[in-house]
Amino acid sequence: MGIKTLAAPSVRVTRSKSRSNSLFRRMWRYRYVYLMLLPGLLYFAIFRYGPLYEAQIAFKDFQPLLGVEGSPWIGFKNFEVFFKSYYFTQLLTNTLVISVAKLIFGIPPAIILALALSEIRYFPRLARITQTMSYLPHFLSWIVIFGILLGLFSPSTGLVNSAIGNMGGQPVSFLTDPNWFRAIVVSSDIWKETGWGAILYLAALLAVDPAQYEAASIDGASRLQRIINISLPNIKDVIVLVTLLRLGSILDAGFTQIFAMYSLPVYSVGDIIDTWVYREGILNAQFSLATAVGLFKGLIGLCLIVVANRVAKRFAGTGLY
């Protein structure tokens, strides 16, 4: 018994050294791959994880002259200020409504566009022109997009209101009407990002073995049946991945877009957490408050990703990790 008791630790140490040597050999074998990963790892380490040290000001009454370390500790007071704010419920509701609407109505058009582009692969020129035109809006800033929306929906000179006036109707202030503002925000985001979002699905579709389509065609499957039974199952993992990533940023309703488009008349339906933080945290120099809200958003996003990943693994058989 004594011999076995003494031998067990030595065996574990030997196995541990063996695994370490094996890991080192694998890393050395793929050293150039790890070298290519190094810039990305350094970026996240310096610009993502490094600043987390300064996030402690969320629990302090930050005073620039005293610095991060010298500012007095106040605990969760900044979080209480945000949670007890008169506008908290309104801000959270607006953020969730806009974000969920973008998620629900934004993913299907990208999938449909990718499927359409894959179906016209035998007309490469048409496919290239269509794809270029569809993802070109992604490269336009929201300021430019807002100028286009003004040209369309301006009550006095907009094309839409001109058409309404020609038909005997009254002009509608789409961009300053609370009943229309959210619809304009969501629809403009879909128009801007659908083409860019379709690239991921299209890449997954191009990786599908053409023999599957040929076999289905020989068996008499229609084009719609091939899409349902071959194309969609092959991009299921990508759909789940994109959905999970977007769930993680569900409290990011699009600050730049909202900031460019909203105005005082639509605050009740368009003011989101980020725009409130900009006014209170940046313009009013409440840096601790802004940091506390950022930590709150990050925690909610992390919880959503963990929960959604488990649900996806249980029902879809795949997840983010």
Automatic annotation (TrEMBL):
GO terms, biological process: transmembrane transport
Cellular component terms (Gene Ontology): plasma membrane
CDD domains the record matches: TM_PBP2
Protein name, entry field: Protein lplB
Family: Belongs to the binding-protein-dependent transport system permease family.
Location of the protein in the cell: Cell membrane
Chief localization: membrane
Species of provenance: Dictyobacter aurantiacus
InterPro entries given in the database record: MetI-like, MetI-like_sf, UgpAE/MalFG_permease
Segments traversing the membrane: 32-50, 96-118, 139-164, 198-217, 238-262, 282-307
Membrane topology annotation: Multi-pass membrane protein
All copies of domain ABC transmembrane type-1, residue ranges: 92-308
PANTHER family linked to this entry: BLL4140 PROTEIN
Keywords: Cell membrane, Membrane, Transmembrane, Transmembrane helix, Transport
Keyword Cell membrane annotated: yes
